[in-house]
Amino acid sequence: MTCPLPSCDVSVPAPREAPGVRRSPPHRFRPRFHWELLVCGLGGHELVGTDAQELRPEDAVVARDVAGVRWHRCVRCDSWLPLPPPATPERDHPPDRDEIELPLRGRPLRDRVVLRLIAINRALHFLALGLLGVAILLFSANRADLHDVVLRVVTDLTGEATSGAAGRHGLRHRVDELFSLSSGRLHVFAAIAIAYALVEGLEAVGLWYGRRWAEYLTLIVTASLLPLEVYELSHTVTPFKVVAFIINVAVVAYLLFAKRLFGLRGGAAADEAAREQDVGWDALEANTPAGAPA
User: What is the 3-state secondary structure (H, E, C) of 170-197?
Assistant: First the structure.
């Protein structure tokens, strides 16, 4: 790997590629998505020692002076940025390693982003199902007052007949049947919607914080609903149903193969070993330019 600093002419072999780095020429039709660049582009680089008065030799992994220019390394994407020394230093030297919390990078960073996207999806389900459950309860408690008003509005909007054979079909008839449901059945529907909303909310919180149990819960719940979605698609196909089915299949496949659930591809042990290859001081040192102490 070639040193990224302008005044360094020494090249040393790297034991393995750093996240976001490719030594071979890129393939035109096989682009690689760099999660580090995405996160740094949105939230900024993770730099260490920008408020330090001076740099020590042991700080060369994350910051160093070269030809009078101070260079700071992003500990997420491995970019080296020239910055002037601080006008008012807050510390004598950069913090020691045990004081630095290294950010995620490589595959662990990818997993964090994907899991949080799934968590947002589940949070939207939580809101929708929670509102549906509350709406059913409100409807059950006030349907006597709403019956005539709702039917009148539906009739005015659709122009459907209110008597004869035409009155026994269409949207107005379906709405009238909804009002005829017993309170007990409505309460059961509301309880199911609220219970499912709570499960979705639990998934969202657990996935947001990267909890393993939430991955299992999400996989089991999502996979259990796939047969029902297939049954619905066999009767009526709509763009919304197709998109929802594709998303759920992708979630199940990702959790099974990428997160190695139920012991697949080595299970949790293999997942942790892969994490250690990309995150930690060993991963940083393995891809540090020449001149840094081991």
Answer: HHHHHHHHHHCCCHHHHHHHHHHHHHHH
Say if residues 13 and 7 touch (Cβ distance below 8 Å). Answer: no
Residues near 247 by beta carbon (within 8 Å), at least 6 away in sequence: 121
Residue 14 banded pLDDT, cuts 50, 70, 90: very low
* Whether residue 18 has pLDDT greater than 90: no
Query: How many Cα atoms occupy the beta-carbon half-sphere of 141 within 13 Å?
Result: 7
Q: Which residue has the tokens 């001081």?
A: 281
Q: Kindly report the pTM of this predicted structure.
A: 0.74
The amino acid that residue 234 corresponds to is S
DSSP β-bridge partners for residue 71: 64, 82
Contact 74, 46 (CB under 8 A): yes
Interacting residues of 207 by C-beta distance below 8 A, sequence separation 6+: 115, 116, 118, 119, 122, 214, 215, 218
Write the CA distances from 57 to 92, 93, 104, 281, 294, integer angstroms: 14, 11, 25, 16, 11
Q: If we measure between CA atoms, which residue out of 4, 2, 25 comes closest to residue 14?
A: 2
CA 79 to chain centre: 24
Asked if residues 267 and 260 have their Cβ atoms less than 8 Å apart, the reply is: yes
Cα dihedral across residues 163, 164, 169, 174: positive or negative: positive
pLDDT tens, residue by residue, 238-248: 888 899 999 99
Are 200 and 218 a contacting pair, CB within 8 Å? no
Put residue 46 in one of left, alpha, beta given phi > 0 → left and psi -120 to 50 → alpha. beta
